[in-house]
Automatic annotation (TrEMBL):
ANK repeats lie at residues 5-37, 38-65. This is Lysophospholipase. The keyword Repeat applies. The keyword Repeat applies. It comes from Beauveria bassiana. Pfam families: Ank_2 (PF12796). SMART domains: ANK. SUPFAM superfamilies: Ankyrin repeat. The lineage of its organism: Eukaryota, Fungi, Dikarya, Ascomycota, Pezizomycotina. InterPro entries: Ankyrin_rpt (IPR002110), Ankyrin_rpt-contain_sf (IPR036770). Keywords: ANK repeat, Repeat.
Amino acid sequence: MQNHVGMTPLHLAVYYRNAALVTLLLQYNADLEARDIQGRKAVDLAVEAENFPIVELLIAHGTKI
């Protein structure tokens, strides 16, 4: 499921810095490799925002940088 700019629920949780929701989505196997229309993965948004706790969480669940 993606919105009009290709963001998934995981992208949005990362964008809004909601670590609890990121964790929940990861428990339900959110797609770590999904890209928005600009080609960004959720981890890319976390890096851009310098949200390193979420970056670490995504890496721990297997995302590739």
